[in-house]
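Subject: Sanity check before I submit

Could someone independently write out the structure tokens for this chain? I want to compare against mine line by line before I put it in a report. The sequence has 372 residues.
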Amino acid sequence: MSEKDLEAGLEQFSSVPFRASELREASYLIGREIDSVLVFELERTEAERDSYFTPTSGPYLFRPDTVPFFKVSSKGRVADSRSISRGELSALTLLWVLKQAQMGELLLMDEPDAFLSTVASERALNLIVNRANELKTPMAASSHSYLGLSKTPLKAQVLLTIGVDGESRLETPGDKGIWTALRVAPALGVLFVVEDRVAEALLQAILLETGYPYLSETRVVHVNGGADVLTAARYGRLGLPQVTIRAVNDGDLPGDAKSEPSLLEFPSPMSLGISPEATALKLVEELIDFEKSSREQLLRHLETTVGLDPHNRAQSCAEMLGLTVQEFVVRAWMMWFRSSTEGRAQLDMFGSVLSGVLPQRLTVDAASRGDS
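---
Independent answer below. Compare away.
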């Protein structure tokens, strides 16, 4: 539509103001106080209509022959559809469409959260659901954005996928599937804090081995020593609203650290307060199948390195085998978990503990329902 046609349309058609309730919704969705909104419903030319829409036999809720033009007043400043942001224009257009929804109609919306910010995307879906509930009408909205979906219950989502045969399928998404389909990383829900890089690699392997269900929104980070791990444990007690924080003792923190209620303990075969490296060194002496092809050489190397600091000794053994120290430690622990009754029992116990470590969004949902 040319500027000349637009000005002519604004003169020809009368405007419809947003009601007070609609202004509250606009302010909520856009995120700033909106004093007034005038809507001009301008007619598209036939050529413009056909270039945007494919004719169908059914009626449109979003009418292809009409385009809304908005004049917005906020804190004494007036703007219109030509000068407001694309996000604000998208928000106002969504509200204009929702005004026209009728009871009993099936409400289908294509990417209603397009161009919206993270907060506005979530609020848009809330408004759509509220409107559908008010009208007692079924509603479905498509989205390629994780912004709103991250706060939408999985039970309310359906995943449209394309198989290797090229056929489209509707699937029930899981925590991991929805993020894989969207090709983005999910919002961080759980943060595990450990002492060093070896503990970081080991905990990541343990999370995989136990099948921790929230792995896609979990991160493991290492800090600078045991004191920082204890600081992270104290943060875990605070119940921060954005993320669940759990510190994990890898075995060599001071004995009084175990009194910290939010501190988790690695599933260790020896309750001796020793590091993952020291534990790995003891395990490889007992696990006869560990690095079978190099076992004699490894045992001789263990004898010649007796007396070294366990971290340096594990590093030396790893280098002798052509491994990083992280790989050496993780291999030893994983073999113990998989090949011994004690190891499997310890891993299962730790898996039970992990089952109580929920992303903060689920912790908040459980609290709001009164779950124990």
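---
OP: Matches mine. For the report I'm noting this point. Residues 46-62, 364-369 have pLDDT under 50 and may be disordered.
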